[in-house]
C-alpha cells in the first residue's frame, strides 16, 4: 500500500477530521508527526475504535452531539456498520431537531454561509473555503422548507451537511470533496427573528428578482470555480424548487432531491409494483394527493418515464395523472386557485374527459375523484394525517384488483394511512410503500406478515449523484434518472415474492446505490453527455476505484502533501 503524503503535524493533524485517526495512529506515525504525548499510549485498530464509539453511542443521553465527527473514517465506518440503526442520528428526526436549534448548538463551521449583506464578497468567500481544492459535490439549501419543520434560515447548513454525509455513507463520495452551502437569504420564521441567539441574517426572506439574481450569482461562481461539481439543491420552497431546476438543468449538472429524488424513488417503487400486477406504466390511472414540490415532482417523473419507456406522447402521459390538493381535483374550473409553477398539462378539463365523464360541480373531493377515476395507483404527499381513510381505500379497492397505495408523507404523524389499515381495508390486496419506516403488518386470512417498503430517497439519489460525478456528465438528464429508477426497481424483492417489500431494505443501500451509479454512468455515456473513455466491461472496477472507503491509510510526512 502506498503511503499517503500528509503535510500537517501535531495538534493540527488531530483537529483535522479528514486526516485524524485518533488512537489508531501507530507508534511510527506518532513519532513522525509530532503526536507523542498527545494521545494515550495504547494504539487501537479501527474495529476497536468502532466498539468503543458504539458503546459511547448506546450510553449517550442525546444523539445531537454525535453528529459532529472529529474523525471521518471512524464516524463513517461506525454508521456503515450500524446503518439502519444510526441513520436517524444524522438525518430525520435528529437532524430536524439540530437544525431547529442551530444557533443554540453552534460549535464550529461545517460549510459556508452566503448572505446578501456580504454579496460583494461572495466570490472571495467561496475562494477562501475552496482553497484551490476541486470538489465533486456542492449541496446547497436556502432553508425555506426544511424536513417538515419549515423555514429555518441560516440553519439550512445542517441539511446541506447531512445530505453530504448520506452521499458519503451510501455512495462513497469523498467527504473531503463535498462542500455544504447555506444561502442565508433571511427568514420569515418569527421565532428565529426574535431569538437573541439567532446567527443568521435578520431580515424577512428575500423574494422575487432580487432573490433569483442572488442565486444566479452563486450558481455562476460554482460554474466558474467548480465546473465539474454536481450541484444538489435541497429543501428550497415550493415556488423556487422547480423554477431553479428548470433554469440551470441544461447549463450545469444540477439535481433537486425534493423534486427529482422523490419522483425517482416513487417511479422505482411503481415499476416494482407493476412487476407484481402486470401492465405498463402508460396503462395506469394515477391519483396524486398533494401538489407541492414532492407531489408535482412525482407527477412529472411518472409522466416523463411514460414518454421515455412506453413511447406515448406528452399529452397522453399527462392524462395518466390526476392531481388533487386542498382545493380538490386540479381542473380548469378552479384555475384561479392553482398556484404558479404547476404544469398546465396536468390541469383537467371540466366536462369533456371521455374516459371519466363530466366532473359534477362541487363534487371534486378525493373520494369522488377515486370513484370516477377508479385509480390503480394512489400516492400521498399531502402531509394530511389519515387522509386515506377507510371509505376512500375501500372505494379504490373496488375499482382495481391490486391497488398500489403509497402514503409517502413523513414523519409518521403526517402519514396518509397506516399500512396495517390499508391491508385490512383491501383484504390484503394492497401493494404498499411508505415515506417512513414501518414494521411488517398482518395479512388478513394469513399467518404471514407483509413487509412494508420504505420509499426513501436515499435509496436512489446518492448513486445517481455518484454516477453523474464519476461520468463527469455535463448535466443530469431524464434518461439518467430513469436508468437509476430501473436499476432500483430491478432489485425489488417483490420480483421474486409478491409478499416481499417493493424496495430493497435500507441496510442494503450501499450495494443498491453502487448498481444505480453504474447504470447512471452507462446512461450518461450512451446519451453522449460524458467524455469518459472506459470500456463497458471495466466500468464497475473504474467506479469502485473512485469510491471513498472508510479505511485508514498509512501516513508519511511531506511538507508538500495534503493538508485538508
UniProtKB/TrEMBL annotation:
GO terms for molecular function: malate dehydrogenase (decarboxylating) (NAD+) activity; metal ion binding; NAD binding. A divalent metal cation binds at residues 234-235, 258. One of its GO terms (cellular component) is mitochondrion. SMART domains: malic, Malic_M. The keyword Cell division does not apply. SUPFAM superfamilies: Aminoacid dehydrogenase-like, N-terminal domain, NAD(P)-binding Rossmann-fold domains. The active site is at residues 91, 163. Gene3D superfamilies: Malic enzyme, N-terminal domain, NAD(P)-binding Rossmann-like Domain. (S)-malate binds at residues 410, 456. GO terms for biological process: malate metabolic process. Its cofactor is Mn(2+); Mg(2+). Residues 68-249 form the Malic enzyme N-terminal domain. The keyword NAD applies. Belongs to the malic enzymes family. The lineage of its organism: Eukaryota, Fungi, Dikarya, Basidiomycota, Agaricomycotina. It comes from Filobasidium floriforme. This is Malic enzyme. Keywords: Metal-binding, NAD. Divalent metal cations. Prefers magnesium or manganese. It comes from the Eukaryota. Residues 259-525 form the Malic enzyme NAD-binding domain. Pfam families: malic (PF00390), Malic_M (PF03949).
Amino acid at each position: 500500500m502506498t503511503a499517503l503524503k500528509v503535510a500537517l503535524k501535531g495538534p493540527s493533524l488531530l483537529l483535522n477530521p479528514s486526516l485524524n485517526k485518533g488512537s489508531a495512529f501507530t507508534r511510527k506515525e506518532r513519532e513522525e508527526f509530532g503526536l507523542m504525548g498527545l494521545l494515550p499510549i495504547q494504539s487501537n485498530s479501527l474495529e476497536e475504535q468502532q466498539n468503543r464509539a458504539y458503546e459511547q453511542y448506546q450510553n449517550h443521553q442525546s444523539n445531537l452531539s454525535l453528529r459532529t465527527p472529529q474523525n471521518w473514517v471512524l464516524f463513517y465506518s461506525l454508521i456503515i456498520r450500524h446503518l439502519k440503526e444510526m441513520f436517524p442520528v444524522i438525518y430525520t428526526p435528529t437532524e430536524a431537531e439540530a437544525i431547529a436549534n442551530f444557533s443554540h448548538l453552534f460549535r464550529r463551521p461545517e460549510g459556508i454561509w452566503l448572505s446578501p449583506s456580504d454579496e460583494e464578497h461572495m466570490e472571495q468567500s467561496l475562494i477562501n473555503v475552496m482553497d484551490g481544492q476541486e470538489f465533486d459535490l456542492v449541496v446547497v439549501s436556502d432553508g425555506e422548507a426544511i424536513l417538515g419543520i419549515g423555514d429555518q434560515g441560516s440553519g439550512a447548513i445542517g441539511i446541506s451537511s447531512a445530505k453530504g454525509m448520506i452521499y458519503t455513507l451510501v455512495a462513497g463520495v469523498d467527504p473531503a470533496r463535498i462542500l455544504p452551502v447555506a444561502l442565508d437569504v433571511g427568514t420569515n420564521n418569527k421565532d428565529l427573528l426574535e431569538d437573541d441567539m439567532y446567527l443568521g441574517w435578520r431580515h424577512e426572506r428575500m423574494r422575487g428578482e432580487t432573490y433569483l439574481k442572488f442565486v444566479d450569482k452563486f450558481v455562476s461562481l460554482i460554474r466558474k470555480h467548480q465546473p465539474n461539481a454536481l450541484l444538489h439543491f435541497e429543501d428550497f420552497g415550493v415556488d423556487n424548487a422547480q423554477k431553479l431546476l428548470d433554469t440551470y438543468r441544461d447549463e450545469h449538472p444540477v439535481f433537486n432531491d425534493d423534486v427529482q429524488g422523490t419522483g425517482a424513488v416513487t417511479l422505482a417503487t411503481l415499476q416494482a409494483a407493476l412487476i407484481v400486477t402486470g401492465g405498463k406504466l402508460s396503462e395506469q390511472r394515477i391519483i396524486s394527493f398533494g401538489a407541492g414540490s414532492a407531489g408535482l415532482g412525482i407527477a412529472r417523473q411518472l409522466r416523463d418515464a411514460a414518454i421515455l419507456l412506453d413511447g406515448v406522447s406528452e399529452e397522453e402521459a399527462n392524462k395518466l395523472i390526476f392531481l388533487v390538493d386542498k382545493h380538490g381535483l386540479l381542473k380548469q374550473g378552479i384555475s384561479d386557485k392553482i398556484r404558479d409553477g404547476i404544469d398546465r398539462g396536468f390541469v383537467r378539463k371540466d366536462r369533456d374527459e371521455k374516459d371519466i365523464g363530466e366532473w359534477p360541480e362541487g363534487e371534486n373531493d378525493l373520494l369522488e375523484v377515486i370513484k370516477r377515476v377508479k385509480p390503480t395507483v394512489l400516492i400521498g404527499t399531502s402531509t394530511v394525517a389519515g387522509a386515506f381513510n377507510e371509505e376512500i381505500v375501500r372505494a379504490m379497492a373496488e375499482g382495481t384488483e391490486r391497488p398500489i397505495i403509497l402514503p409517502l408523507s413523513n414523519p409518521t404523524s403526517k402519514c396518509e394511512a397506516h399500512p396495517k389499515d390499508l391491508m385490512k381495508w383491501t383484504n390484503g390486496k394492497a401493494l404498499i410503500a411508505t415515506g417512513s419506516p414501518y414494521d411488517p403488518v398482518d395479512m388478513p386470512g394469513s399467518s404471514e406478515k407483509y413487509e412494508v417498503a420504505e420509499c426513501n430517497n436515499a435509496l436512489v439519489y446518492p448513486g445517481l449523484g455518484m454516477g453523474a460525478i464519476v461520468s463527469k456528465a455535463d448535466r443530469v438528464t431524464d434518461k439518467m434518472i430513469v436508468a437509476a429508477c430501473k436499476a432500483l426497481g430491478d432489485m425489488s424483492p417483490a420480483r421474486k415474492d409478491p409478499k416481499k417489500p417493493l424496495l430493497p431494505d435500507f441496510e442494503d443501500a450501499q450495494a443498491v446505490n453502487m448498481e444505480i451509479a453504474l447504470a447512471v454512468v452507462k446512461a450518461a455515456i450512451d446519451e453522449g453527455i460524458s467524455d469518459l473513455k472506459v470500456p463497458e466491461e471495466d466500468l464497475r472496477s473504474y467506479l469502485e476505484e473512485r469510491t471513498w472507503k472508510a479505511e485508514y491509510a498509512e501516513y508519511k510526512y511531506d511538507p508538500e502533501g495534503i493538508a485538508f
